[in-house]
Each structure stands twice: as structure tokens, then as C-alpha cells.
Automatic annotation (TrEMBL):
Native source species: Kitasatospora xanthocidica
Matching InterPro entries: Aminotrans_V_dom, Aminotrans_V_PyrdxlP_BS, Cysteine_dSase, PyrdxlP-dep_Trfase, PyrdxlP-dep_Trfase_major, PyrdxlP-dep_Trfase_small
Names of the cofactor(s): pyridoxal 5'-phosphate
Record-stated family: Belongs to the class-V pyridoxal-phosphate-dependent aminotransferase family. NifS/IscS subfamily.
Annotated keywords: Iron, Iron-sulfur, Metal-binding, Pyridoxal phosphate, Transferase
Reactions catalysed: (sulfur carrier)-H + L-cysteine = (sulfur carrier)-SH + L-alanine
Residues annotated as domain Aminotransferase class V: 11-368
Protein name: cysteine desulfurase
Gene3D superfamilies linked: Aspartate Aminotransferase, domain 1, Type I PLP-dependent aspartate aminotransferase-like (Major domain)
Top-level taxon: Bacteria
Length: 388
């Protein structure tokens, strides 16, 4: 079990990055201690290639797909870019939603910048769920090349039911991509059952090293090669460049560890998340949990503390690692685009804290975090209402 070097810190920011699993650390260090380019044909190169092949199989087993359908990347951002650029090469409209991660939204906007009408953002309801009727209307035009909807939202944890999305898209001849960065390693993913064409993931979200991810490309998907990096043709032409063997080895080991522990980790983490929510709702008052409570990731809670700006709350609880929203856009002056799309006001969005739990979260951490968060919210509210 992972142990934080900062024992006084309740680390509840797994959606930003998870602590490295011991198995992943061991595999990464062992690979770093060896020498060899995975593309070389001598013994050292073959040993490096064997590490990559093992990791590819471990990631494939976590997703229940063929190992040849896995393309290693530097992370989910690159995988999202690669997927959308390849899919858009077919020609046609790109359909996504306003609650996607910037790695999808900004890529989609860039790809369609020359023809803004070719990008369609589907509306979402107050719980963050995509309007499927709007999706069907878009697909009925027969002009859609790819539908890209995230499997689970990074801010609210709300899960997308991909089954009807895939069914409708494929019936209309469109491809489906999903950014599954927050879902993989947290809940079961079965690509033999969920027939998406493309899926992006990042290893550090489930306990692997940072800087490595993967793109699943279903065998037989009619895609033109549109690599972002041109060079030696590694990864079957999808991504040129010397493979990051230590990172890939760590990603594989993390995938294997997550797969083995999934059945026990998910319900345990959900129970801890519920305990945190119950404590905060009961003790703080005037707060609201965002998203559909029945269809969220087990370890994510997005809570709006009315009358208490999130930045002030976080500053008032330095012994808790949490977030205002996506770590990729923290520090930006604009409020969460996810919460705004769900109908929240700017003030409500600015008063929302995301707590995200994971495989190493403990009950004592939750208890400390609850006490600290309650104290912080009360302190901020009192300071803002105190007479000058």
C-alpha cells in the first residue's frame, strides 16, 4: 500500500494524479536500470521490446481488448489529439459536448477552425448528462464523422452511458471516440462489450507514472493515418519516436495492479466518498453535490459551498489536497466550463471544490479531511460576512 511522505496531508486529488503504485514504481525503476532501445535488434533492444510487449498486454487485459489495438503515447492529451485528428480525416462533422476536458474541446475547436459549422457541441442537463435526443438529431443529418464523449467527467465524476451513443453513431456511419482517462482503472472497462472505435487513457490516473498513456484503436476501424509525430514509424506508424520503456513498463504494471484490485477497490472507495459527503452535508450546511449521484465514479465528489469561494476554502485547509476543478486549468481566471454548462452561476462555480479519492485513500484521511473542510468553510463564510 502506498504511504504518503507527508503523513499530515489528506491527499484527495486523485483526478489530478494518483500516487504511483508500488508495482509501477518497481517496474519503472527496473526498466530504467537496464539499457536498450526497443527498436534495436540486439539482445538489449529485444529485452526492452519485451518490457513494452508485456506492458501492452497488461493494458489490453485491463480494457479487455487485443494487445495490438494499443498505441502508447505520452498521455491522454496526445491520445485525444491523435484520435480526433485521425477521425476528422474521414471528412464530416465532429460532435462532442461542452463538458469535455480541454484536451478534447480545444483540439476539436482547432481541427474545425477553418469550418466552424463542422463542430457541434451537444447540450447537457443540470446533472451533466449529454442530451441523447440532440445527438440523434445531429446524426440524422448523415454528416457526422466522429462523436467524442468522455466516459467519466474529470470534475463531477458523472459517467456517460456509452451504449446508446455507440449504437446511434454506428447506425449513422459515424465513429465513436471516448476520453476514458478518469474511468480506466477505477471501474471495469470491457471493450468487447462497449464497441467504441477509439479510447484514450493516461497511466498516472490509475497509479502509473506521469508522461505515458495510450490510445486504443479498434482493429478494422477505417481511419487514415494522421500521426502527430513523423519519424521512424514506431507504434505501427501511429507515433514516431523512441519508446519510453520505463514509463510504459510502469503503466503496464499499474494496469495489472488496478485490474487485480478493481473488484474490491471500487466499493471501498465509494463508501469512503459517501462518508465524506455525508459529513460535509450534515456539518457545513448550505452546500450541494453536483452531478448524478447514482452514476458517478466511486471516488469523486464535486461540492458547491455557497458563500465560500473555493480558492479561499482550499487555502484555509492546507492539510487537505483537493482542487477547484480540473488540475489542467487550475489557476485560470475563468470558472469551470463544466459547471457553467450544467447551468451553474459563475458564483456557484467559483465556490465548488472537487475531492477525488483513490486506491490508497484511508478512512482516517477522510475523517481528517472532513474536519478540516468544515472548519475551512466556516472560517471563510465568517470572514466574508464579518462587518468591516
Amino acid at each position: 500500500m502506498y504511504q504518503s511522505p507527508d503523513s499530515d496531508l489528506a491527499y484527495l486529488d486523485y483526478n489530478a494524479t494518483a500516487p504511483t503504485r508500488p508495482e509501477a514504481l518497481k517496474a519503472t525503476v527496473e526498466a530504467m536500470s537496464a539499457v536498450g532501445n526497443a527498436s534495436s535488434t540486439h539482445r538489449s533492444g529485444r529485452h526492452a521490446a519485451e518490457r513494452v510487449d508485456l506492458a501492452r498486454r497488461q493494458v489490453a487485459e485491463l480494457l479487455n481488448c487485443a494487445h495490438g489495438e494499443i498505441v502508447f503515447t505520452s498521455g491522454a492529451t496526445e491520445a485525444n489529439n491523435l484520435a480526433l485528428r485521425a477521425a476528422s480525416g474521414i471528412g464530416g462533422r465532429l460532435v462532442t459536448s461542452p463538458v469535455e476536458h480541454p484536451a478534447v474541446l480545444e483540439t476539436a475547436k482547432t481541427i474545425t477552425s477553418g469550418s466552424p459549422d463542422s463542430l457541434m457541441l451537444l447540450p447537457v442537463d443540470a446533472d451533466g448528462l449529454v442530451d441523447l435526443d440532440a445527438l440523434r438529431k445531429a446524426l440524422a443529418t448523415g454528416e457526422v464523422a466522429v462523436v467524442s464523449l468522455m466516459a467519466a467527467n474529470n470534475e463531477t465524476g458523472v459517467i456517460t452511458d456509452l451504449g446508446p451513443v455507440v449504437e446511434a453513431a454506428h447506425r449513422a456511419g459515424a465513429l465513436v471516440h471516448t476520453d476514458a482517462t478518469q474511468l480506466v482503472g477505477r471501474l471495469p472497462v470491457d471493450l468487447a462489450e462497449t464497441d467504441v472505435d477509439l479510447l484514450s487513457l493516461s497511466a498516472h490516473k490509475f497509479g502509473g507514472p506521469q508522461g505515458v498513456g495510450a490510445l486504443f484503436v479498434r482493429r478494422g476501424t477505417p481511419l487514415p493515418y494522421r500521426p502527430l509525430l513523423i519519424g521512424g514509424g514506431q507504434e505501427r506508424g501511429w507515433r514516431a519516436g523512441t519508446l519510453n520503456v520505463p514509463g510504459i513498463a510502469g503503466a503496464g504494471a499499474a494496469a495489472e495492479a488496478a485490474r487485480r484490485a478493481l473488484a474490491t477497490e471500487a466499493p471501498r472507495i465509494a463508501q469512503l466518498r459517501d462518508a465524506l459527503e455525508d459529513a460535509l452535508v450534515e456539518r457545513v450546511g448550505d452546500c450541494r453535490i453536483n452531478g448524478v449521484r447514482s452514476t458517478r465514479l466511486p471516488g469523486v465528489t464535486s461540492i458547491t459551498f455557497n458563500g465560500a469561494p473555493a480558492d479561499a476554502v482550499l487555502a484555509a485547509m492546507p492539510d487537505v489536497a483537493a482542487s477547484e476543478g480540473s488540475a489542467c486549468s487550475s489557476g485560470a481566471p475563468s470558472p469551470s466550463h463544466v459547471l457553467l454548462a450544467m447551468g451553474h452561476s459563475r458564483e456557484e462555480a467559483d465556490s465548488t471544490v472537487r475531492f477525488s479519492l483513490g486506491y490508497a485513500t484511508t478512512a482516517p484521511e477522510i475523517e481528517r479531511a472532513a474536519v478540516s473542510a468544515v472548519r475551512a468553510v466556516r472560517h471563510v463564510r465568517a470572514a466574508l460576512t464579518a462587518p468591516l
